[in-house]
């Protein structure tokens, strides 16, 4: 893998590398990236991997090559501005919704804010990073009291504390480093939205690349609620009241918020293929009022030299954000998907109705704005879906027809080199795929059991037959079970049934406590089961006897009423493709591969992945899904599986 990455960087050719747990893929891309002649960006999806790179892998690598001539071992971590504490906000105060500075609140929130302020001052004095991941315990609401968004920031040249600014120091360090470690979202904003966030670079390594499309989509999704517009109007009122206008533009913006609230209340939730007239008109009112309000800021009183008004900057940023989102919604582009989200809840806990707008697809933007500008290495444990790289390559903007060769095949021949200028002219972006294999012997370490005898899953959640199967399997394993469910309701129903019928075992459900606490209990007692949804499918690493059985209740197809997925599926169908296979089945294959990957984490691990959905064995698309899973020994015989689990349990007790 290291050789392939080095060749890709030198030859300016994109590379997809599937590298499973235990292959050492981090070092396999860090070494050639450090040896590359120009700066390389390393983008990860999760904080856990970022910590692993910065706190373990990179320090070890730097120590190992220390003293080697000509090797630049410098590296830096770069995050979005809101991830860093803001010294101006900490020292000058936080404006309220009317732009007036407020005192620190009383109670627990106030105590946490004071602790964060003290910590930030210590970080400033010691030269620490000042980012939220190194901060004392806090929640998102508390962190907002000591941070600002990119729009709210006064700018280093206007801020009295610009030279001490944590975010500016991080950017400066990144500009002097060979490697810049960041996240998928910041990469998307920099490369795809064209907002400069990262110092100029030559190449990118995208780790956890199976997450990239979702993170890019998330970064390019905007939301608007009447409460957002109301808040922007309140903050703006004091700062535009002296502007040269017949009325206060902030009042017009507040009126537009009421119009939007009324329009959304009369509109059915879900995807809006065409904006209803009442919604379109209210969005236009918001857009026009916000535009006038932004103009009023420019006509109003100027800040005193050297004394920028933080409250004014925050208020203007809020109005600009409302304007940008309203303008995008009003455009009603065929390249966007719009839907009305109406969350559950009531009273003070109810989340307001929101209009959401997301890109119909992102592969085009990724191809035009990332892949044509930089060499990109994509790597993950799950990049081969249906047994091939073509599916994932297509989602990130690479065409199957552009694949240079089949690396590792005996008949592979070197492809003709297409240099950067020629590729740009011809529109060809050559790429290669490499599966480096795994240190695990899946055929001997794991069993994939498909419960073919069960009825297909219904819309009403778990049926009696599925519950009986879960109880029987867990009883044989004597706990040690990770249950991955398609819904919170199914996870809770299964947990309740297992607690009632197997009371001698401890059964935990996601939501009972923080995930870190649930994981600690799961690891601490082998006779424990942990049931949950998506957060466990991808984010849990529990090697050893803790987990010898992974239960998956059903194939994780996207919900039929998912506005974005259903729109993408329909668009593929309209273009002559197979929307179900290219969107729904691909989504399911990726999640299944991630879920099944929770079982075998070391060369000593043994166990069973039990799929309770018989469609994996009976449906035509089942072959595609199975080909995306680790090559475990397959069976549909429940008796074989029960006996295997009993033997594993007995062995673990010895």
TrEMBL record:
SUPFAM superfamilies: P-loop containing nucleoside triphosphate hydrolases. Keywords: ATP-binding, Helicase, Hydrolase, Nucleotide-binding. Residues 122-142 are annotated as: Disordered. Its EC number is 5.6.2.3. It catalyses: ATP + H2O = ADP + phosphate + H(+). Residues 1-290 form the Helicase ATP-binding domain. GO terms for molecular function: 5'-3' DNA helicase activity; ATP binding; hydrolase activity, acting on acid anhydrides, in phosphorus-containing anhydrides; nucleic acid binding. Residues 130-142 have a biased composition (Basic and acidic residues). It holds the Pfam family Helicase_C_2. GO terms for biological process: nucleobase-containing compound metabolic process. Belongs to the helicase family. DinG subfamily. This is ATP-dependent helicase DinG.
